[in-house]
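Task: fold both queries, return tokens.
Query 1:
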Amino acid sequence: MSKLIRTDVCVIGGGVGGVLVASAISQMGIKTIVVESQNLGGERLNGGSTKTFSLLSVGRLFEQIRSAQLYGVKAIPNGVDYDRVLNYIERTIKEFEPDYSQERLEGLGVNLIFGQAKFLTKKTLQAAENIVTAKRFIIATGSCLKTPKIDGLDEVPFYTNETILKKGGIPKHLIILGSMGGGLQLAQAFSLLGSKVTIIEKGRILSQEDPELVNFIYERCLELGINIYQDTNIKKVKNLSNRITIALTNNKEEKSISGSHLVLCGERVPDIKYLNLAVAGVDFSNDGVKVDKRLRTKNKNIFAIGDVIGHGFSEGRVENHAEVIIKNILFFIPATIDEMHGPRLVLTSPELAQVGLTESQAREIYKKIRVMRWPYSENYRAQIEASTSGLIKVIALDNGKILGAGLVGDSAGDLIHIWTLAIESQLKLSLISKMKFPFMTLGGISRQVAKSFFISNIFNKQNRLIANILKNFR
């Protein structure tokens, strides 16, 4: 017999966004329930993003050891103990677990229900043996991998970025279908640890990012020996003598590639299959749940946050969504999301970070823009640490208003913060150019690129003419 539970707020999904919202709301004395179909922590704990970045960090460390002799340091690498590497990754993940644990949430007053949520009416859902009635619902179920329709795929063993990190040795030849969902991270990590790696992408890698910045990552992959097939159509997949064989068409040429392991890292889709949203009066499509600027669905008592609303999949933006939800539900403040200003980060080697408009997006909106660039190679810190492959790129209007910024290189994710603040606070380039940065830091490139905006103004034809006239009065 089903048990009826009444609550103020029911959060569907115990990932990062769901836990953030539920924790905050419950601490304000609001009766809160979280319904989770699998494990708490979502992609951050249970998915592949954190694990693959951890593996990439180990790969980069191994590369540093191998190249130590270039700096006069004698270091002889003795191979990779892959099982111990995986043990290290698991220990790292466990450091995050308390933040998303059942004990913590229940200690904050959150009622947890484990089971698949399914709406029965606009105000009621079923979860396991429970019928939950709530004043407000928040859909935070995230996204899941979309299995591509490829002839023969259902007859061959394959992995995802969530399942490939298994003990038993480093793959000899990893074939990765798609560059999304940690695909590039996996490719670089395993390549650094000794695997042969091939990436097959139906479009272009990181097609949503600035191609000028993406090219640094592409060149790095080639440097590592990774084979990349872009704009490629896969015709068939076979399992021949325990080898994965893929027939494909690239540049109008038919080719065949064989490898030991196949990994799917392609398109992700909102995880809404079992929610029965139509009954709840919620509009949705294959792209996700449809929401307004306040993250409300057509049913104004139901909100949605994170990847489930589509529009690009980024773990980082869910925290901004959580803040908007909390303000709307707790304090009735009509807070809205601003996806344009949200920073995003690709944790590859090198890192790529962007905020605001890219150059192509800005040119579609504005008739005239200014584009400033400054290479890492002109920075002392980068030169000393041999990390000169990188670039900062800033898009602005003639009046100094910043439209967007992008970085590719070491610590790009840390350097993007100042540009996020500048865009959100509507600061102009003049303020960035006057900022004081400590000597010998990568952060200095932000000031240099901002100063370059004014150098072209200072040394224009008019100012040169004035300077020549004034020199006669010295």
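Query 1 returned. Query 2:
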Amino acid sequence: MLARTVKHLVNVRILALVFVIFLSTEAQAEMFEWEGFSGEGTWVSVTADLSIAGDTLTIVLANTSAASLHPADVLGSFYFDISKEMSGVITRPTLTAFIATGELYVGVESGPDIAVDGVGPDDITSTSDPTWWIARDDMDAEQIPYLGLGIGTVGNSSLGDNNFPGLGGLAAGIYAGEITTNNLTTDPATPLVKDLATFTLTFETLSGFSIGSEVAFGFGTDPDSLHIVPVPGAVLLGLLGMGVAGMKLRKYA
């Protein structure tokens, strides 16, 4: 009888250990969506899919607007959070590798946009071109947009310490549709990403860390507008005159 009891307890402990390991490595996924008016009054819509598998975070950013008409309609930055709390102290993971891909196009006002290297994903990581996308794991979460991590292909100088150093123009920003306006016409040196981009971020460890419940979409280069999803009460975000009127916010878990 004693032997059976001991065997039963051992089996229970093994099952409990397996369950704990499963929980610590369980995949996470969040989807965020924002739609509203850009700084130029264009109706735009964007989505962000975040998923964790092991120590890797994958982010898919999509500009789902009907068409981008102005630089202010182009998605150029994205802020998010991954953290865990222990004994009242919030910590964030350390980034070790970053890869960004998307289809680069040269915008043509009077004709179809031209794929830079043919159809297929292009490397838009900052290591391949200094104006492409970079990632930061050291954002100041005490300053706008109050999130600890970010990826961007623009400077966002108006955000102070939460900018993207060394970046300036809108090259590799994410636009939608076919370009039909002169102010989005580009050349091979400064192409844009059409429709969506995929970002793969690898960390030292993501064990025990969780994706935060808020993100921020930045449009244009300064940015022209910044939209935090969700915003309690859909209040306006007053940031150096950046307008976010007409927002319609939704978040899907």
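Both queries returned. Flag for query 2: Helices lie at 2-25.
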